[in-house]
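Quick one, tokens below. Sequence please?
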């Protein structure tokens, strides 16, 4: 697989199926900046063209690629999260918890 361009993203098969996304589609991604100087959570968004879909094996299934976030990655269940960013627990679906 070629290295994606700056405006491209590779989705794993779980995310692609959940979003109904295929190569060539455009997806919008939102995230919180990891650090701010005033302690406020700042959200950023960007649009990416789906360059490829990776099977859930090898690197695409490696849980160690996720950066450590206290209150999130140290919990066994999403219902136990205490994240340092705004979070709406009512949006968690069974399939999210299984993932």
């Amino acid at each position: 697989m070629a290295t994606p361009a700056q405006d491209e993203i590779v989705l794993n098969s779980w995310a692609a199926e959940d979003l109904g996304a295929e190569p060539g589609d455009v997806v919008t991604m939102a995230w919180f900046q990891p650090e701010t100087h005033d302690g406020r959570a700042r959200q950023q968004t960007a649009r990416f063209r789906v360059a490829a879909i990776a099977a859930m094996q090898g690197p695409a299934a490696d849980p160690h690629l996720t950066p450590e976030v206290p209150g999130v990655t140290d919990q066994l269940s999403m219902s136990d999260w205490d994240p340092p960013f705004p979070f709406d627990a009512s949006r968690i679906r069974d399939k999210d918890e299984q993932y």
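The mean pLDDT is 90. The chain is about 10% helix and 25% strand.
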